Amino acid sequence: MVNRAAIRRWAIALLLAMPLGVVVAGDDGDAQGEGDYVPDDPETEWLPEEEEDRPFIERMDRGQATVSRGVFLLSRQLDRMLGTDDTLYPDEDYRSLVRVRVQQRVSDIGSDRTEAGVSGRLRLPGAQDRLSLVFSSEEPEDEIDAERGTPVELDDDRTQSVGLEFLRPSENWESSLDARLRSGSPVDLLTRGRVWRDFQPGQWRIRPRQSLFWYDARGTGATTDIRLDHPVTEYSAMRLEGSATWFDRESQFYYDQRLSYIQALSPRRSLVWQAGTRGESEPNNQLTQYYVQVRWRSRIHRDWLSLEVRPQLRRDRDDDFNTERRIFVGLEAAFGHPGAY
């Protein structure tokens, strides 16, 4: 099923953003106000070299550069409004990034679907580089799926969210606190706190993390997860991930485990082999889903346009563990400071 409304909505948003970028990127600074104008860093290369023999590629690059500069300037203006000082930071300190994705799923049972989405993070270095504005149209509508941290599949309902995230780094443990509004009827409020630490015993890299959260619509809960990385060769590594999520209202645990083998095929291409399971504690500890998939990802144009192909085999308890064969094809465009992607 093709979600034409979603594609149309984000296409209109991009078309509106591009002229906005032209306005804020003007040389005279009138759009920002004479007192607020800050000249560009000459080291920042917003526009790539001209492609005289490929006019379509040149127009595409210039459109991406225009929107990217608009994202950067929006981040800088928000930083001056919300930041704690009036310092004019270098361009590269605004590591803001917006990603636009279009994904197509083809299944052997005929459940084809296309979706488009956008997500981003606007970093504010004036707030001691700890505050970010975050937004997404790709969050799972179900709060349980949102907290389990598993990738959103195209058969999952999605919702939009926007909020602020505060990061507090330290020498040992790091922590973050974020508050978000999630679309719906009524609008849902989410607050979440996280604390984690990175260890490196020998060649292992280990990250345990604890999260506490509260949804206005669903109540409180917690997630405990751990990630272990170990190199296999110079260009490959193994990753183990496991998590348990508890929702107090349901009085139930939700389990997730995943094993990944990550290969760097080249500086622009990677391949990830994955196998995963999902489970629940009620009515008894049981497996609800398992899957295997391969993710091939490549930057197909400069550093901002990527293609991902993901064949997948999946079995669900709700479908009597019958095998469903699916393939996902996704295109992703990145916008922001050139150093952010």
TrEMBL record:
<feature type="signal peptide">
    <location>
        <begin position="1"/>
        <end position="25"/>
    </location>
</feature>
<feature type="region of interest" description="Disordered">
    <location>
        <begin position="31"/>
        <end position="52"/>
    </location>
</feature>
<protein>
    <recommendedName>
        <fullName>Beta-barrel porin 2</fullName>
    </recommendedName>
</protein>
<keyword id="KW-0732">Signal</keyword>
